[in-house]
Design a protein that fits this description.
The protein is mostly helical. The chain has 8 helices and no strands.
Length: about 220
């Protein structure tokens, strides 16, 4: 598997990791009883999201076609637009291009390397930047939307909506896996410090019996 360099600074990566853990991780106390059964699964399970990877793959090939169509149509209708619409459209195309390159790169790194901060950055860029700008291109009739633009914008919008949903599901799965691995490491540290006590405490818990210490038969006879 190739190794990707992440452009995110360390403080941003930590913030995105904390945000992802609080939003997408589903911590329940009932999951603690499954730590021993899921230890191998947590280490070996691959949570890279195949539908998201396929969407990004086709998006890479579609975006140059969308960009070329938008630039050509913008060139044709540019003299007919007011000055403020000219500035808005040029700014929107430039921002979409920059965000798209960064977004796809973060998506590839986050999904293939199973890195939550990068994938969270991909989701945030898609939901809070790409979607609003593209919705402006689709809904504002003052920019003289051409039939070709409606077609390519509709396809691009479907890509963004599908990638938003797929990345959300991928983030939820990755956050749960990381949370489980964190608790497993804590359990392993406690078990290494008190191996006999921990083993005795959990020896009977899986069969539904109490883990409290019970008196032996000799103690009962001595008490009588």
């Amino acid at each position: 598997m190739p190794v990707f360099y992440t452009p995110l600074p360390r403080n941003i990566r930590m913030g995105l990791a904390n945000l992802s853990g609080s939003v997408f991780a589903n911590n329940r106390t009932r999951d603690s009883c499954d730590f021993r059964d899921n230890s191998d699964k947590a280490d070996n399970e691959v949570v890279a999201h195949l539908p998201l990877q396929m969407l990004m793959y086709f998006n890479i090939y579609f975006f140059p076609f969308w960009w070329l169509s938008e630039v050509v149509m913008l060139e044709l209708k540019f003299p007919l637009l007011p000055a403020y619409y000219q500035a808005l459209l040029v700014t929107g195309v430039v921002l979409l291009t920059i965000f798209e390159i960064l977004r796809i790169y973060l998506g590839y790194v986050g999904n293939l390397e199973e890195k939550v901060p990068e994938l969270a950055g991909f989701w945030l860029l898609t939901f809070f930047f790409q979607l609003p700008i593209l919705l402006f291109f689709v809904t504002d009739e003052g920019i003289l939307i051409a039939p070709l633009e409606r077609a390519v914008h509709a396809v691009y919008l479907l890509f963004l909506l599908a990638e938003t949903l797929a990345s959300f599901l991928a983030l939820r799965n990755m956050s749960r896996k990381l949370t489980l691995q964190f608790h497993l490491r804590q359990f392993a540290e406690v078990q290494s410090l008190y191996p006999m006590d921990v083993a005795h405490a959990f020896a009977n818990s899986s069969y539904g019996r109490s883990v409290l210490p019970m008196p032996t038969a000799e103690d009962v006879r001595a008490g009588n």
